UniProtKB/TrEMBL annotation:
<protein>
    <submittedName>
        <fullName>Putative pectinesterase inhibitor domain-containing protein</fullName>
    </submittedName>
</protein>
<dbReference type="InterPro" id="IPR035513">
    <property type="entry name" value="Invertase/methylesterase_inhib"/>
</dbReference>
Length: 82
């Protein structure tokens, strides 16, 4: 059950990251920060759902996804001045 929830969360995260990439690629940057935040929240939801279980690889992947989201946020702030 925990892993099924993470699959759903990761589908949301991948979708948000793909849209963020498209936003970055189009040089509009309007939704980049929000989309990165959506992806980060999906990773956090997965992590919260796995609390108390021993899936260290999944924990590592959640952390890596959050770092990618933080990079997107920095890029967004750089280009938008926000």
């Amino acid at each position: 059950m925990h892993l099924q929830k993470c699959v759903s969360d990761y589908k949301k995260a991948v979708s948000a990251i793909e849209m963020a990439y498209n936003d970055l690629n189009s040089e509009t940057f309007f939704e980049l920060a929000d989309l990165a935040g959506d992806a980060c929240h999906a990773a956090e939801d997965c992590q919260a759902n796995m609390k108390g279980t021993h899936h260290s690889l999944l924990h590592f992947m959640n952390d890596a996804l959050k770092v990618l989201c933080e990079i997107c946020l920095v890029i967004s702030k750089f280009f938008t001045g926000s």
